[in-house]
Structures are given as C-alpha cells and as structure tokens.
Amino acid sequence: MPRQPEPGNAPEEHAPRRFGLSQSRRWISASGLLACILLVGTDYAGGGAAREWSGLALDASIVAGLVLVVFNAFRKSVLVGENEIRKVQPLWSDRSVPTSEIRRVHVPTIENGLWLYTDPDGNPALTIGGGLEAPEELEELVIQHAPSDTAVTGLGHRANGSS
Question: How many CA atoms within 13 Å lie on the side-chain side of 52?
C-alpha cells in the first residue's frame, strides 16, 4: 500500500494564501454589534410596557441584519494563488480574477486595499477593501503573481510597474 503524506508535511508551496479580517477590524465589528444589541435590549428592559408587534419586528430585523453583516465581515477573506485571486464573502457571490489577466494593480493612496484591472483604462475587475490582515504582504503577493508587464499605480509606485 503506498504511503500517504502526513497532513503536516504536505507540500503547500502552491496552496493559495488566505488573508482574513484583521484582529482590530474584528474587534470593532464585534463591539459595534454588542453596543447595538445592548442599546436595543436596554430600550426594551426600560420600557416596561408591551411593545407593538410592528416595532418589535422592526428592531428584530435591524439586529438580525447587523448580525449578518458582522458574520459576513468575520468570514470575508481574499485567496491569492498562482492562477487566481479570489474574494470570498459568505453572503455574496465569490469574485475572482485570473492572475494572467491582470493588467494594472492600483494601491489607493487615501484608503487601504487593492484595485485589480483587466483593462487598464476600464473599471476595476476586482476591488479588495482594507481591514485585512498583513496588507503589505497581500499587496506584495498580488503584484508578484501578476504578469511581469502589469502596471502598479498609486501609493508611491511608478506607472511602469517598478517601485
């Protein structure tokens, strides 16, 4: 019987690198949700009188919506592989761009994130927002996997792709 590689020793050099939400963004999201729940909870606890069903349904819908948004933020990630860059969000469809089709990578100067273009003069094919862990590593890895003639713009980069 052929020997299977041990799980800890499997070659991972070609495995996509996952970038999830940073710890500070997780803390901010969780704190905001907790504050909202406490605010709604104290409103009900202090009110004493029975609420109308429409008010209760509206408040429950708002809290449920916030829970879904925070859940989505916690599970959001970007996978950077040799052949594809994929933005994964549980509540929305995944979006991806083949690395071979990237023609321009823009690093915004005012906000964090990356904008990936398949048409240098068109709209971004994929936008990666800020708040992810290891943003410098993410930027470096995306630029490394893009074709060598890809232009890199913004954040002090020259338009010809060199930094």
Answer: 3
For residues 110 and 136, what is the distance between their CA atoms, to the nearest angstrom? 15
Provide the whole-model pTM: 0.67
Each residue of 125-160: pLDDT tens digit?
999 988 888 888 999 999 999 999 999 998 755 444
